[in-house]
Write a structure and sequence with these properties.
Keywords: Magnesium, Metal-binding, Transferase. The chain is mainly α and 337 residues long. It contains 18 helices and two strands.
Length: 337
């Protein structure tokens, strides 16, 4: 698709405009993903992988890699390898997360661990991590390998930190940010940074792309956590209060707990730390969030991170893709305006 056509294509959402602009690259990524998720000896691997890969996800992370590379003028083939790598890492973490969280639904469908079993989900996730490293090596770039290997380790650290922090009222906003940077933002920033590196962009541009991905990922996760209390089931695919019922100490609760009096703190200890939840507890939690303006402040933080993402793009070349990335940051927070 030409630059002019893609820039003028009317699409309801920025990620759809990105997909339209990057259509040929995305076809190549999907072809590569299908080829590399095959297994001659274990047919369950492509079965489990296809269930998740083809479940209708937006392909946001691989699109960030493709967009970053194209924005920096890359004309070679390896941005496709990196985009497939990012999608494999993301899919592997989802398979593992659903086992850890004992989830039963993902993107509106039964999870792989429910349809098959936990062992299959964990082992197929491991297989996808291995495939992702094969794809990285094929690019011939040690720096790209370093970026994505570090991101994979950071994702695991973030998930393990969340295990210990999620139900501990001592968890503060600094710890929350470490969790979010690990489990969400690390792959966003690696996706954008790797795209710049494979294109041979100068250090200022590579740094800007990393900052954009980091801030976008943090905003993305804060919005998800906010919508658990301020969204609608139709819009999010989740029931309001799922995080509360799962005793996850996300940013809105952290803000309310920090301002709790003794009576309120006793409530949070009972429902989050001890897991003794009763009828009416969610409604009471919502009233405490309102009393301490926790949702409004969480919304403001999500907006601030989105603004930081947009500001980071200033050193990048003037290009239709840069405008789309700016719009994408706005779109991430549009659901909470």
């Amino acid at each position: 698709m030409s630059l002019d056509t893609a820039a003028q294509t009317p699409a309801a959402k920025p990620h759809e405009r990105l997909a339209s602009f990057l259509a040929d690259d995305l076809v190549a990524v999907d072809t590569l993903i299908r080829a590399r998720m095959a297994s001659e000896h274990a047919p369950r691997i492509p079965e489990v992988t296809a269930h998740l890969v083809e479940a209708g996800g937006k392909r946001l992370r691989p699109m960030l890699t493709l967009a970053a590379a194209r924005l920096c003028g890359y004309g070679g083939p390896y941005h496709v390898h990196l985009a497939a790598t990012v999608e494999f890492i993301h899919t592997a973490t989802l398979l593992h997360d659903d086992v850890v969280d004992e989830s039963e639904r993902r993107r509106g469908r039964p999870t792989a661990n429910l349809l098959w079993d936990n062992k299959s989900s964990v082992l197929v996730g491991d297989y996808l991590f291995a495939r992702s490293f094969q794809l990285m090596v094929e690019t011939g770039s040690l720096r790209v390998l370093d970026i994505l290997a570090n991101a994979s380790a950071t994702i695991s650290e973030g998930e393990v930190l969340q295990l210990t922090a999620a139900q501990d009222l001592a968890t503060d906003e600094a710890i929350y940010l470490k969790v979010v940077r690990g489990k969400t933002a690390a792959l966003f920033s690696a996706a954008t940074e790797a795209g710049g590196v494979i294109a041979g962009a100068d250090e200022a541009v590579v740094s800007a792309l990393h900052t954009y991905g980091d801030a976008l990922g943090i905003s993305f996760q804060i919005v998800d956590d906010l919508l658990d209390y301020a969204g609608s089931a139709d819009a999010t695919g989740k029931n309001i209060g799922d995080d509360f019922r799962e005793r996850k100490l996300t940013l809105p609760l952290i803000k309310a707990v920090a301002r709790a009096d003794d009576t309120e703190r006793a409530f949070w200890v009972r429902v989050i730390e001890k897991g003794d939840q009763r009828d009416g507890d969610l409604e009471h939690a919502m009233s405490l969030l309102a009393r301490h303006a926790a949702l409004d402040e969480t919304r403001a933080e999500a907006m601030a991170w989105a603004a930081r993402a947009k500001d980071a793009l200033a050193p990048l070349p003037d290009h239709p893709l840069r405008a789309m990335l700016v719009d994408l940051a706005d779109y991430v927070v549009a659901r909470i305006n």
